[in-house]
Amino acid sequence: MKLAVSGKGGVGKTTFSAILIRTLNDQGKRVLAIDADPDANLAAALGIPDAEKIVPIAEMKELIFERTEAQPGTIGGFFKLNPKVDDLPDSLSAKLDNIKLMRLGGVKKGGGGCICPESTLLRALMLHIVLARDEVVVMDMEAGIEHLGRATASAVDKLIVVVEPGRRSMDTAGHIKKLASEIGLKNIGLVGNKIRGQKDEEFLKKHLNDFEFLGFIRHDEALIEADLDGVSPYDVDSIAKTNVKEMIAKL
After folding, report:
1. How far apart are the C-alpha atoms of 54 and 49, rounded to whole Å?
2. What radius of gyration, in Å, describes the C-alpha atoms of the chain?
3. CATH numbers and ranges of domains, the chain
4. Which one of 86, 101, 140, 198 is most buried, by most CB atoms within 10 A?
C-alpha cells in the first residue's frame, strides 16, 4: 500500500501521518515513512530519538555528487538522469521498530521542477520507493505535492488530504485535488481533523461534497500537549488512535 498525505500547513497532517505509521507498525506491517515536507518533522512526531540530527537527502552534497556526477546547486550541464537509488532506503533511513524513515528535504534553488542534481536524485528515489518497494509506504507531503510526478502518481494507492473546519484549509484541498488530477492521481480521500462536534463534520461534508471522507479526528488537547512536550502523538492517550485504526480498516 502506497499512501501520500497532504494538506495545508497547520492542519495536523504530520500528526495524522505519525499516528497512521505507528498504528501500521503495531499491526505488524513494515513501513517506509517519507518526510517530504521541508517544514515538518515527521521523525520527531514518530518518536525517533535525535530526530533533529537527521540530515535531509537534498542537503547530502557528497551523495548527490556521487550519484549524479554533478555538484548540487548547479543547473544545466551534464549529469546522470537515472542515478542509482535502490540502496538508499536501507542505508540512509532512521529506524524505529519496523519503521524506516527518510527525510527528503527541499530543493531551494530553481523551484520544485528545476532540472538540477538534487531534484533529479529525489525524483529517482521517489520513483523507486513507490514502484519497487514492498513495504507499506507513507509519504508526508507538503501542500504542493511537488515530489510526486506522473510516473509515481499512478502507483499511489491513495492521496489522503487532511482538512480542518476552515475556508483556507478547504481551498487548499481543492488546489491539491487540481494538482493531483494534472498528474493523473484520482484516488483521493479526506480526513477531517480538529473536529469539535457534529456541526464541524457536517460543515466539511457540505462544502467538500465532491470528496470521499475516510473519517474524522476529534479536537483533542492531549495531541496539542504532545506536540508542545515533544512527545509522539501516538504515545499519549487519545481517541485519535481509534479513529485512525478505523480509517486503516477502510483503506
Report:
1. 10
2. 18
3. 2-250 (3.40.50.300)
4. 140
